[in-house]
Amino acid sequence: MTAKPSSYRFRRALFILGFTLPTFLLFSLITAYPMLRGLYISFFEWSGYSGSMSFIGLDNYKRLLKDNIIGTAIYNDYFLVFWKVVLILAIATFLAVALTRMNLKRTGLFRVVLFFPNLISVVVIGVLWRYIYNPSDIGFLNAFLSLFAGDPVKTVWLGQENTAMWSILAPAVWAGIGFYMILLMAAIMNIPESFYEAAGIDGASRWHQFKHITIPLIWEQMKVSIIHIVITTLNGSFIIIFLMTEGGPDNSTQVMGSYLYQIGFQQYHMGYASAIGALILILTLVTSLILNRLLKRETIQM
Amino acid sequence: MKTWRNRNKSVFVALILALTFSLLAACSGADTEQPANTGSNTGSANSDSGENNGGSGNSDEGLTGEFEIQYFVGGYGDTWWKHVISEFQKANPKLKITQTAGSQINEQMRPRWIQGTPPDFVYIDGAGSNEAQMVADAQLMDLTDFLKGATNADGKKLLDIAIGQPTDYGGKLYTMPLVFGSWGTFYDKAWFAENGWETPTDFESFMAVSEKIKASGVSPYIHTGVYPYYINGGLVNSAIVAENGGDASIISRMAALEEGVFKSEPVMKALGKIVQMRDAGLIDPGSIALNHTDSQMAFLQHKAAFIPNGLWLENEMSKDIPEGFEFDFVPSVMQDKGEKYVAIPYTASVAIAEKAKNPEAAKAFLQFIFTEKFAVDWAEMTGAIMNVKADLESSSAGPVVKSAMSYFNSDQLVVAPALIVNADVEQALQDGIIALLDSRITPEEWGDRLEEAAAKAR
């Protein structure tokens, strides 16, 4: 087999180009360009409304270091990341196992019910949960707790420093479980039944089966889930914060995304907002790289 | 097998089609968000588009050239705008008027302001608009000399008939307030009468009646903690003016970020009164987590007696007002006995772009709309007050608006300028009051915060 005719090579190159070029162009246009443009703006003092921008070098980044609210925001972001990963994964895994391995009836119904929050718009979730937390007696949570306490409960869930972030965590977890549950269910259903049968004959308890068969075989999916939760939380918590508290009271529930919005669109410092954007990008990258390293386990083939 | 494969293929094609259509639908959805260019152009534009001389036409033919108006459409609707623009068109048949309007207009027009091709005339209102920022960005034309001499069609000076004066930006005027409203303390008149609670006329009577309300098991005072500018407008700022002996110039000094003004005696005394209210337990502790819908619903359901709000409140909640509820308002409750009421206004202004292509037409339009006739039209079409001293008694405006107008015309009331400050200082004002109400900081710490924010913004 000597050299193929050049028309073949050309066609092959054309074929590859035909797939890669449009993708590359789209990527450049809608991902790379805005990102680089954002980085570029972060070196300027710009209101976002003015025709003129002035170059100020690293001043926006220096300001990040001195800004107390940035500290609060990073802390709140990682608070949400940590608890969302722990709670969503624990609950989603439990439910996935329960719905696949425990011979329950009506699993279809449960699946739909538990997946339902994923189908509701976040805006609706925000409004719904604001009602739950309402401090007066319209609020479901306080009304419910009042049934057990002697006096009417009047906790201001979203207004106190020690309860606000936990109160925001609850809907975030509630709305997140369904998707990861489905993901893990699919993984569990891929495990051949014979593994469990063999383990059962060998006398392994359900807990041992879960620990030594299920977990190792769905580890890849769990890893993906963790990284996905981390990335979406660092980038997307903005929405739930804005719907629930707008970062208040007195900036105590601010996350990086909501603070970016406030600085850029309410206080008119687009340059500084872009610097916050760069910070989010860097922290997301570093966190997912570290997690990837930490979660590395030998992939177990079936 | 073959039929199965064919069916598979057709399913695939159907999917592709569905995707394409959903994309198209998304695009067309975006199209409807585009600025509505509903130019009411009456035909004559073609004939003289060549001889556009900047629009300084004589009185017979009116203005010529092109003229673009940007206005935000929100709670006040666009009826009034369409009405005045069509009147202006009738007066100037050769002018080609373009209206650029909508609820998202500030975001949609932002690129044009950045690129330096803004519309000629702009009504600054709604999300994404900020008058002080536009001035800081040198987007607006200096109207100092023009406004001082400008008269309307009735020959009256614009500044004489205005209720609220334009904001002073270091001795210069860039804007003219079009909408004039007042913050204040609202209550249900009927409910108060039923319980024998008196309408407060000063701080002393306010505290007394609040204690009485509290004793009956109702929260005396609720506010919108998620948006602290409600309590700033309805309570704090009027307290500051009252503590300054009713001299409203302190508001201008705050807006100008004068050094030390946020730690001055009147401000500290005003915050002292707020602390007094807070420590007496008169402010509903749940307020801090409430947005405007939550707090206003609680107010309408008689969970609280007073609420700081703006004159739009009755209109905004019109669908939810319970039977027998009778809105009334006091401009301020923080003045000492025998002192005058203080009205803290909120305004939405009109202005002319620094880079306007047809400034003559824009100035003419500004003079054209500031008449008593159009002010009555405004009150009837929007339920709000235009910034012109007009007689509304015979108009079909609502009772709260009429009651407000009678306060404005009374000599027992000081009308302060609207507090329009740098956005960073505004944020600090909002964060600060919440921190103070939540006992996280003292009035002195409030002063430190504000002085620091002001120093940075100066």
UniProtKB/TrEMBL annotation, chain A:
<keyword id="KW-1133">Transmembrane helix</keyword>
<keyword id="KW-1003">Cell membrane</keyword>
<dbReference type="InterPro" id="IPR000515">
    <property type="entry name" value="MetI-like"/>
</dbReference>
<dbReference type="GO" id="GO:0055085">
    <property type="term" value="P:transmembrane transport"/>
</dbReference>
<feature type="domain" description="ABC transmembrane type-1">
    <location>
        <begin position="74"/>
        <end position="291"/>
    </location>
</feature>
<keyword id="KW-0472">Membrane</keyword>
<protein>
    <submittedName>
        <fullName>Sugar ABC transporter permease</fullName>
    </submittedName>
</protein>
<feature type="transmembrane region" description="Helical">
    <location>
        <begin position="112"/>
        <end position="132"/>
    </location>
</feature>
<feature type="transmembrane region" description="Helical">
    <location>
        <begin position="12"/>
        <end position="36"/>
    </location>
</feature>
<feature type="transmembrane region" description="Helical">
    <location>
        <begin position="226"/>
        <end position="245"/>
    </location>
</feature>
<keyword id="KW-0813">Transport</keyword>
<feature type="transmembrane region" description="Helical">
    <location>
        <begin position="164"/>
        <end position="188"/>
    </location>
</feature>
<comment type="similarity">
    <text>Belongs to the binding-protein-dependent transport system permease family.</text>
</comment>
<feature type="transmembrane region" description="Helical">
    <location>
        <begin position="270"/>
        <end position="292"/>
    </location>
</feature>
<feature type="transmembrane region" description="Helical">
    <location>
        <begin position="81"/>
        <end position="100"/>
    </location>
</feature>
<keyword id="KW-0812">Transmembrane</keyword>
<dbReference type="GO" id="GO:0005886">
    <property type="term" value="C:plasma membrane"/>
</dbReference>
<dbReference type="InterPro" id="IPR051393">
    <property type="entry name" value="ABC_transporter_permease"/>
</dbReference>
<dbReference type="Pfam" id="PF00528">
    <property type="entry name" value="BPD_transp_1"/>
</dbReference>
<dbReference type="InterPro" id="IPR035906">
    <property type="entry name" value="MetI-like_sf"/>
</dbReference>
Automatic annotation (TrEMBL), chain B:
<dbReference type="InterPro" id="IPR006059">
    <property type="entry name" value="SBP"/>
</dbReference>
<dbReference type="GO" id="GO:0030313">
    <property type="term" value="C:cell envelope"/>
</dbReference>
<feature type="region of interest" description="Disordered">
    <location>
        <begin position="32"/>
        <end position="61"/>
    </location>
</feature>
<dbReference type="InterPro" id="IPR050490">
    <property type="entry name" value="Bact_solute-bd_prot1"/>
</dbReference>
<feature type="signal peptide">
    <location>
        <begin position="1"/>
        <end position="25"/>
    </location>
</feature>
<comment type="similarity">
    <text>Belongs to the bacterial solute-binding protein 1 family.</text>
</comment>
<keyword id="KW-0732">Signal</keyword>
<dbReference type="Pfam" id="PF01547">
    <property type="entry name" value="SBP_bac_1"/>
</dbReference>
<protein>
    <submittedName>
        <fullName>Extracellular solute-binding protein</fullName>
    </submittedName>
</protein>
<keyword id="KW-0813">Transport</keyword>
